[in-house]
Amino acid sequence: xxxxxxxxxxxxxxxxxxxxxxxxxxxxxxxxxxxxxxxxxxxxxxxxxxxxxxxxxxxxxxxxxxxxxxxxxxxxxxxxxxxxxxxxxxxxxxxxxxxxxxxxxxxxxxxxxxxxxxxxxxxxxxxxxxxxxxxxxxxxxxxxxxxxxxxxxxxxxxxxxxxxxxxxxxxxxxxxxxxxxxxxxxxxxxxxxxxxxxxxxxxxxxxxxxxxxxxxxxxxxxxxxxxxxxxxxxxxxxxxxxxxxxxxxxxxxxxxxxxxxxxxxxxxxxxxxxxxxxxx
Length: 280
Hints:
By secondary structure, this protein is of the alpha+beta class. Helix 2 runs antiparallel to helix 4 (about 80-90), helix 4 (about 80-90) crosses helix 7 (about 115-130) and helix 8 packs antiparallel against helix 9 (about 210-220). The two termini are about 35 Å apart. Helices cover about 40% and strands about 25% of the residues.
């Protein structure tokens, strides 16, 4: 089922509300008597039973939550870690609760959300649970000095959602050739979800090209209904694959966690998502 497109006035209102949320200090985060933060606007939202759910409520982490996300099979998979954390700490999405849906459907709802929304939600949970500052540890690529940088969560800008849960493509190269030799070139890509990340993220540590193949297989659909198979995506030209990868990057939204730093020792500029952090 196609997701409803949000009009520009609605998007402007949502972005304004998010900016207001981000400007609050930790002590200003409004919680109810149970310690729950209510009705925070999502960046994109998620469709469920013909409704576009646009808000979420959450609580801070407990020791039980920390134990759950530190299980080896979860800790080793960044996508699964975020999904597990949010399954536990999010109280409702658009008014729907885990109790109302049941554990299985609640997990499916979380995993059907865009990766950008899930990261935003996790950042909010982290802010309430551990404070506004995150310490990054990294190594200067020039002088190899071990560095620590403290960054405020509110320093990360938000790339706005453009309203497109799916977006069209037209392959510029040889296209996608199916098992019968028929070539397909036009279709749509969809936004990455929590389930996609849980499946694909572990593959990037083993073979980034294979992970990219799996990712494209999951996100692509063709206008003529051709079924997309992993082995056939692997046979696509680099030109077509890079075109699709760039199109995905062009439609990325959410928290921009890239850092622009300067080494205190040698003055080298360091950019990108550098090093590890104390996020959880």
